[in-house]
Design a protein that fits this description.
Elements lengths: L1 H15 L16 E3 L2 E5 L4 E12 L2 E14 L11 H6 L1 E16 L2 E11 L4 E5 L3 E4 L2 E4 L2 E5 L4 E5 L7 E3 L9
Antiparallel strand pairs: 1-3, 2-3, 3-4, 4-5, 5-6, 6-7, 6-8, 7-10, 8-9, 9-12, 10-11
Length: 178
């Protein structure tokens, strides 16, 4: 269970960094509180799936989606026929990726965002937002076809398409001219 909470914590950290702002709650001991209609752990598929009105909260960070799936990669004996117990399988796994799907929304202070799909790849420390993604920070916003946030580099790439060009709004805080 400790690894599961750590995995959700990683999603919370990476998602909030998408607008290059401070991460939520500097205390890494903050718990991640996940609420959903149901949860299924499947040792054969190395997945943990939360379904139905999913809400994940860590400090000030909040994320909502219809489905949140953690894909785990097994250490060592992944192809063995003799499966270990659920507890040892969870302890012997690392996070491969996290996928939030359908009506994904997140909020951290003045930062908000939405997409139809948000995927965090742990090996690359990369967050990919797809399906009409948009990020807001106060009056500033960015949207495109796909938004990729490279967490280690604090760098974003927003891709457009013929149907959905990149659109950014940068607001100055200087209200004197109005």
């Amino acid at each position: 269970m400790k690894k599961l909470l750590l995995s959700l914590f990683v999603l919370a950290l990476c998602t909030t960094g998408a607008m290059a702002a401070p991460l939520p709650g500097g205390d890494s001991n903050l718990p991640v509180d996940v609420t959903a209609d149901n949860m299924v752990y499947n040792a054969d598929k190395n997945t943990v799936v939360f379904q139905g009105r999913v809400e994940a909260v860590r400090g000030e960070f909040k994320m909502w989606s219809e489905t949140l799936t953690l894909y785990l990669k097994s250490r060592g004996n992944a192809g063995q026929e003799n499966k270990k117990s659920t507890t040892s399988a969870m302890e012997g796994s690392d996070l491969d990726r996290i996928v939030a799907e359908r009506n994904v929304r997140f909020q951290n202070g003045t930062q908000t965002g939405s997409a139809q799909k948000a995927t965090y790849y742990s090996a690359k420390n990369l967050l990919v937002l797809e399906g009409n993604p948009i990020l807001h920070d106060g009056d500033n916003s960015i949207r495109g076809n796909v938004i990729r946030y490279f967490v280690d580099e604090n760098r974003s790439v927003v891709e457009g398409s013929p149907k959905q060009r990149v659109h950014a709004v940068f607001s100055s805080n200087d209200k004197k001219g109005k």
